[in-house]
Amino acid sequence: MASERVFEEMAKAVVDGLPEKARALAAEALRAGIDPLAAIDQGFKVGMDVVGEGFARGELFIPDLMMSGEAMKVAIATLEPELMKRGQHRQVMGRVVIGTVQGDIHEIGKTLVATMLAANGFEVHDLGVDVSAQKVIDAVRQFNANVVGLSALLTTTILNQEVVIQNLKEAGLRDQVKVVVGGVPASQEWADEIGADGYAENATEAVQVVKRLVRQQA
Amino acid sequence: MRIPILDRLAQGAVLIADGATGTMLQEAGLPAGMPGEAWVLPALTAGSPGEQPAAILALHRAYLEAGSEIILTTTFGGTRVRLKAAGLDAYAPQINQRAAELARQAAGDDVYVAGDMGPTGEMMTPFGRLTYETAVDLFAEQAQALAAGGVDLIYIETMSDLNEARAAVEGARRACELPVFCTFSFDTHGRTSMGVGPSRAAQAMAEMKVPAVGANCGHAPEEVLGFLPLIRQAAPSAVLIAKPNAGVPRMVKRRAVFDATPERMGDLARQFVALGAQIVGACCGSSPAHIAAIAQAIHGRKE
After folding, report:
1. Distance (Å) from the C-alpha of residue A158 to the closest C-alpha of chain B?
2. A65 and A100 in a common domain
3. CATH code at A188?
4. What is the pTM of this model?
5. pLDDT tens-digit map of B101-126
6. What is the nearest CA distance from A73 to chain B, expressed in angstroms?
7. Does B233 touch chain A if contact means CB atoms closer than 8 Å?
8. Cα B35 to Cα B45: distance, rounded to the nearest angstrom
9. Architecture category of domain B5-299 in CATH
10. In a domain, A126, yes or no
């Protein structure tokens, strides 16, 4: 089928990290009347999955993930108007609030997780770095989030991950969200110790963990 | 009195560097989230004036006591853009110069002071907003202040992005005539987080004729054993540097535990030297005890 070949090219544009190529293929798909949802799910997204696996295996690195994420983002943006016109929407897998904890300004890992979650259909609200517990609480309420992602690189600032969880409890929001933690000093043991719902070592694992936790909420 | 460090190294000397700064200053009371640079100029921080630089001096002296022959200035996050996050960017030149003066004060005449330059924390174009030219300017500004403060060399470390490392070298050379060393953090499957392996990193540094190249920080310290031969092969004329973490951090009962004992670090140091390393120290999670073990292992060894 002709569309199979097109889907392969779409996946390849994402794998190769070529935003312009992705945009062009998305525009072509619209002209050819290809279902935009199919273009995303069977085309571009397939490429993102390949990139995610390569990243987890240590064959691809941050620059690759970022260029591929950009290609994915551009493709979706190009297809969005047609999606809306058809009354279709990509299934929102979940609503995520993510940030690097207070006192910590390391952002790359957190940004990668945000990129991968967005590419996988999550609505992501990236609060940035040096995010206070209160800011997380406010965002959870504002966006009706069901997932909170917390990143920390330093062995001192990682203690603030527990502070956020404590604040969520006090605000009566703990049961509404699944909390996933990450960062260099983090581990499954650490997540268990502070009462988080999950731990992820990298952006690819984060997607798997968040998907699994969100399924539990259903 | 010390001879130029490159001459010393050319004679075949093996020099002991120092260890972690951030975690050690935190043990001395530096609040979590506050960079060590904030303690360099006492007038900028709340609390008793003059107390904080004393803590920095005390740490330098502790490493000197343990056997350090090269000490690094408390300027790892000292580029203007990195200091901005702590609201200290307006003081960038003063902080760098003062930190260099403090280290020189502790070091006296016999020990080398290395002007520490770490990453800007910004991603370089095309993935981020930092242009090569701006990066060169940032590092040049930092290096100039460090040189004014009396450092013996510029010490670029924990690099992940190859272009940022190149910009740091270029910036340092624009600012001063001092030797410029450069080490990388290979923390992601044997490469930097940006995917740069030891061979590619060393080759780039060799092309720029950087006289000393190596690995610092990273993941587990044992991994440096595999990196050194690759660096040597790609940069055969360069002095090798090994400054790994004191293990991998784990949170145990809300405290960070790095799992390499001083003894283990001493043992590894011996192996680094056997592979040709001439500058050996430690990074995250280390303490004067680790440096003492390294010094003992290297200078206490039978010839």
Report:
1. 9
2. no
3. 3.40.50.280
4. 0.94
5. 999 999 999 999 999 999 999 999 98
6. 14
7. no
8. 11
9. Alpha-Beta Barrel (3.20)
10. yes
